[in-house]
What we know:
The structure is a single chain. By secondary structure, the chain is α/β, with parallel strands linked by helices. It contains 18 helices and eight strands. The mean pLDDT is about 90.
Amino acid sequence: MDEEAFRKQFTKKSVFKKLGSLDKSWVPDKLYCRDDALNTLIVNYRRILEEKEQPSINCLILGKGGVGKTCTSRYFGKNFKTVATEKDVNLFIEYFDCINFRSKSKIIRELLAKYTHGSGRGYSDDEALKLILTKLIRDNGYMLLIIDEVHLLKPDDVLAFLNIAETFGHQNAKLSILLICRGADWMRIENERILSRLNEKIPLEPYNFEESMQILTYRSEIALREYVLDEELLTMIAQIVVENKNMRHGIEIIRKSGLYCDKEGLDFITADIVRAASDDVYPTFRAEIIDGLKDQELLALLGIVRSLMNSGTPFALVDDAFEEYQSICESYSIEPHVKMSFRKYVRQLAQLKIIASKTVRIEDATRGRHLEITLLDIPAGKLAELLEDIFERKFLK
Ligand SMILES: Nc1ncnc2c1ncn2[C@@H]1O[C@H](COP(=O)(O)OP(=O)(O)O)[C@@H](O)[C@H]1O
Ligand SMILES: [Mg+2]
């Protein structure tokens, strides 16, 4: 392609009106089909704006992937802040996704840096928290802390967050918490003490067909130009959403279908494009998790993927995966870590539900037990492509 042809690509028209509205962090102006959840949040947290003592409230949103947990919490946070401002309450909304902040300390350090401009080095978590709370009181402020994907924290960390008001005294804790978790993962975390600190659990169910239709119609009107996606295709996408119980799948199909049209210079989406886009989306596989992985975890994951592709079996053995990992490190001129660390990365990947691993006892006594690893939610070849893309960007500068 020469420069002129390159330039011309930018003047081509697009089927999108607002592609950014399909990004993960985008919060819609209207939230359909979640009135119940929003009302529950409002009745719980409105006391912060109404009562002079400004109590600490802890709620939890629960539900499967793609039911709108993140979207609902962000919508609530954004609009709650607006109402607070109107009522002259100095409210700060802080949102953390534990994919990026994997411990209580990381979250507290980040807050400390933001609110007090200190690094927090040398402080314990409690000391750092105290500084933040003192700062809030001094500024006559109040913080709503939203913590997403909270299953990635240790239960003790979760409890410590919920316990802030008890620990520091209610009058000192100008802070409330909203936790978000997948239902199945929460079972692992919940205990009596945690439960006793929760004001309310708010379960979200997957959207039914009518709801999916309403949401997708609204979202496609914002994202796409008129006549790009007709009603019949929207129906088809809504059916896919209902089948998978996952709205993210629908949003991704719209995004991918539109991008395909732009690339091929087409004016509207067709059934075939929707089908191809749908096959390309792995609804329960969350690419953003991959984006949050540390380098060594990414390398370990590619080791597992390559090993799966080579063995042709549905599972990989940890020893084989480790060898692949070593050779991948070598090819990118990265010093490989020892096997014990590799096993740690495997455990972390399992905790993130990217892989599943189980220990199997084998007959051959000399080899003892071994660890079998399988990939969840996405075919090995597909994930290999994705990872190799990331590595190109990361390691081959
Ligand atoms: N009620 C809704 N209105 C508009 N968009 C929604 C709604 N519920 C979910 N979405 C969209 O569907 C996708 C998945 O929702 P998300 O909140 O990320 O789900 P979860 O956090 O439960 O996995 C996001 O792109 C989100 O914007
Ligand atoms: Mg979410």
